[in-house]
Amino acid sequence: MPIRVLLVEDSPIALAILKRILSSSPDIEIVGTARTGKEALALIPQVQPQVICTDLHMPQMDGLELTQEVMATFPKPILVVSASVQDRGSENVFKLLQAGAIDVFPKPLAGSAADYEKVKNELISKIKILAGVSVFTQRRRVHQSLFSPPAMTLPPTPPPARRVSYPIKMIAIGASTGGPQALHRILSPLPADFPLPIICVQHISEGFLQGLVDWLEAECQLPVKIAAMGEFPHPQTIYFPPEKRHLELDPQGRFYYSQASPVSGHCPSVTVTFESVASVYGRSSLGILLTGMGRDGAAGLSAIARAGGLTIAQDEQTSVVFGMPREAIALGAAQQVLPIGEIAKTLLGLTKSQLY
């Protein structure tokens, strides 16, 4: 059975492009279109979509209010398809993710045939991923409670006793689908005096990185920035790689960018950064692999574990997509498997016991 998709878009041109792209896949059926959030809410019970694609800016009811209403009444996987990139509007897109949407995608524009094919394949792939999200209502309940632990949690495995001799000096986090929400859950509770640098690698559509950084900067007590070439990582700071560049550390521990080929289809790659952190920080590194499709990061987490560092994977119950963590667990790379609500607590506990 094809995936049932509802398109919510007030631009006739953008709607026509989206319809043409999605209609090209035999695995997708467009079951309805709406110009406003209000029209979409009326349609949802009738057409029963499996995935909703919505714009941010619309008359009468915008994408944020629509997302809030959908999540409160009949939760569905939501993909935000927005032209709000490369400006302050991109920060607002992430408020939809905070409200319950799963992922973001740039609004398709008329371009070259090669660009069109690339956008078409990426959009269809995202729709298929979102349609595969299971136990969605339960997962949203877990995510709605930002600081309280889930009803069922795995007890954290105590860090090895030898860790006392090797205090953590660097934290590296990797994520893909569902990652912005997971990063928010982990990073926003950390205090302004959190004593370690944190490197985050998030797979995200081109053009949305600065919006993600701006949104997290506004939500977190720690500064959030894109790592600068040649800069040493500083404590009390959260870093992201720039778009289309792998982020690594040189032998002296300074950031540098790499234009090497994508790894597992991704640039920046989680594995590339994790392997670099393992090489420079060894037993003083902590790697965390969060929700996401595919296998990027699994080999990198294994490298940190082999170097003697600590490794954590997000559990299946709280992952939007349990692909990347599952791959790491299958490799034996994850020393701890934790619900998302426990990971920030674990970070605070480790650093308090070793560094304060």
From TrEMBL:
Residues 158-354 form the CheB-type methylesterase domain. It catalyses: [protein]-L-glutamate 5-O-methyl ester + H2O = L-glutamyl-[protein] + methanol + H(+); L-glutaminyl-[protein] + H2O = L-glutamyl-[protein] + NH4(+). Phosphorylated by CheA. Phosphorylation of the N-terminal regulatory domain activates the methylesterase activity. Keywords: Chemotaxis, Cytoplasm, Hydrolase, Methyltransferase, Phosphoprotein, Transferase. SMART domains: REC. Residues 4-122 form the Response regulatory domain. It comes from the Bacteria. Signal peptide: none annotated. The modification 4-aspartylphosphate is found at D55. The keyword Manganese does not apply. InterPro entries: CheB-like (IPR008248), CheB_C (IPR035909), CheY-like_superfamily (IPR011006), Sig_transdc_resp-reg_Me-estase (IPR000673), Sig_transdc_resp-reg_receiver (IPR001789). It is found in: Cytoplasm. One of its GO terms (biological process) is methylation. The keyword rRNA processing does not apply. The active site is at S176, H203, D296. One of its GO terms (molecular function) is protein-glutamate methylesterase activity. Gene3D superfamilies: 3.40.50.2300, Methylesterase CheB, C-terminal domain. Belongs to the CheB family. NCBIfam families: PRK00742.1, PRK12555.1. Involved in chemotaxis. Part of a chemotaxis signal transduction system that modulates chemotaxis in response to various stimuli. Catalyzes the demethylation of specific methylglutamate residues introduced into the chemoreceptors (methyl-accepting chemotaxis proteins or MCP) by CheR. Also mediates the irreversible deamidation of specific glutamine residues to glutamic acid. HAMAP family: CheB_chemtxs (MF_00099). Contains a C-terminal catalytic domain, and an N-terminal region which modulates catalytic activity. This is Protein-glutamate methylesterase/protein-glutamine glutaminase. The gene is cheB.
